[in-house]
Each structure stands twice: as C-alpha cells, then as structure tokens.
Amino acid sequence: MSADHTHVVPRPGESAPFHFATHWHFSQPSARVWEVFQNIGRWHEWWPGVRDSTTLNGAARAGSQGARAALRVHRPLVRDLRLILTVTRATPPVAARVDVAGDLRGHGHWHAVEDGTGCRVEIVWCVVTRSRIAKAARGASAWTHRRVMDGGLHGLRRRLEESAVREE
C-alpha cells in the first residue's frame, strides 16, 4: 500500500512531526469495512480509545468530503486528546484523507487493498503537538498510539462480526 506521506511542518512551539503507521487485516472486503469505519460520529460505539465522537456538520460519513467530527481520544497516563477531524479527500471504499486540528495538528490517511482473504488497511498519521508532555515523552507516544489503534482493530472486528450475524 502506498500512502500520501506528506510531512507536517512544525510551527514555532510545536514538536517535531510524529509519524505513525498502523496495519489492520479484516476477513471482510474493503466495502464492508468502509461501511462501519466511515461513520466517524459513531466511532465511540466500537472503538474503546475513542471516548466521544460527535459529527459537527451533519455529514457523519468519511465518504463525504468535508465531513467534520470532534473526537475525544483516551490516552493512558495523560489527559485525553481533543481533536477535530475534517475529511479532505475520499475515494470509497479504498482511501480517505483527514486533516486533524486541536491537541494535534496534521493529517491522516486510510488506504484499503483487497488481498484475496479480505482486505488490508493502512492508517498513517503525521502530526505535531504543542503539548510539553508529549514532546518530553516522545517514546511513550508510539506505545500509546499502538494501544489506541489495537483497541480500534479489535472493536471494528467485533462490530463487523455483529453486523454479519444480524444479517443472517
């Protein structure tokens, strides 16, 4: 998978960029995964690390360019992140780009590829922060990010399994 790995240029007082790449695999096709994932306003229902997700402009789906949502993301040991995600580009069900503002500034990318057994998804973030704690504990940020993303993987798999059972 190839993502648009453009870098965020730090402004005065911001950290050096943090780059995170996460790879998920699902037994379902990308269109099925996209159905659940695109609804940013409902992430809190299945993603344990997302404490709250609220649609800001009525376009709850990432499949809708311009969709905006406010998130509160739990981080172990430090205060929750408060973020605004804005979908800047979407090609359902295989790609989306979001800009992030709030406690982090930067962007993220979602890319899905069918692999014969389902789909592989790559999620890439490039963000900066003004948080002194995050800048000082840079190494812990990768661990924290991984924990939040692992919770998302397991929650999304559960949600996909539940919806498959309801359809039977």
Question: How is the topology of this model organized?
Answer:
Elements: E1 18-26, H1 30-37, H2 43-46, E2 50-55, E3 68-75, E4 78-91, E5 95-102, E6 104-114, E7 119-129, H3 132-136, H4 138-167
Antiparallel strand pairs: 1-7, 2-3, 3-4, 4-5, 5-6, 6-7
What this model shows, in words?
This protein is an alpha+beta fold. The chain contains four helices and seven strands; from the N terminus they run βααββββββαα. The chain has helices at 30-37, 43-46, 132-136, 138-167, and strands at 18-26, 50-55, 68-75, 78-91, 95-102, 104-114, 119-129. A seven-stranded antiparallel β-sheet has the order 1-7-6-5-4-3-2. The longest helix is centred in the last third of the chain and has 30 residues, at 138-167. The radius of gyration is 16 Å and the shape is globular. The N and C termini lie far apart (33 Å).
